[in-house]
Amino acid sequence: xxxxxxxxxxxxxxxxxxxxxxxxxxxxxxxxxxxxxxxxxxxxxxxxxxxxxxxxxxxxxxxxxxxxxxxxxxxxxxxxxxxxxxxxxxxxxxxxxxxxxxxxxxxxxxxxxxxxxxxxxxxxxxxxxx
Length: 130
Known about the structure:
Strand order of the largest sheet: 1-2-3-5-4
Low-confidence stretches: none
CATH architecture: Beta Barrel
Radius of gyration: 18 Å
Oligomer: single chain
Order of helices and strands: HHEEEHEEE
CATH class: Mainly Beta
């Protein structure tokens, strides 16, 4: 029995999409460009394959820039005991991580510290390879 070409193409594309959606650290982030961001948590995307923290950072000139910080997958964060409720919007946070290679205000997060001293490992990916 021959399978029609459109069916074959659809299956190939459907199977390839999850592979294309994931990336390695070095493809998007610079392990030689560490960054520390201080600001207010404006949004939390509790999604897979990686979560995202959005942080409003006030620059020296007073301009607010919203940074997108990639976190680990939600299931990985949950295995560490974290829940979405651990990230209340409006919280003052300090995030450490690595800048995106493309110059956009985005980073791969390694840790987040809240004003009350709580510190969480974000480990979005394998991190910089040295």
